[in-house]
Amino acid sequence: MAKCELCDREPVETTVHHLLPKEEGGTFGPTANLCIPCHKQIHALYTNTEIASRLTTISQLKDDDQLSRFIKWIRKQPPTKLMKIKKSNDRKRKR
Hints:
Blueprint: E1 14-18, E2 31-35, H1 36-45, H2 48-54, H3 58-63, H4 65-74, H5 89-93
Antiparallel strand pairs: 1-2
Helix pairs in contact: 1-4
């Protein structure tokens, strides 16, 4: 158990998030330890191309309008809570 670098909840189970997606060349680049809901939310909202073009740091992720609303909400949730994350309607249309 660790601390999520995005929402700062702890102790939570974390996963490794490649700040530059692997498919965009970030296999050996910087990573961040994120709780499962935060990690899933990023990939539900944005394509890897979008992440690579403008969301490659924790501060950029925290400052993003859509994601900041989620972070504000998730911080109020107990660290043990796992929720179902759905792709946003915008993300579904882009495929």
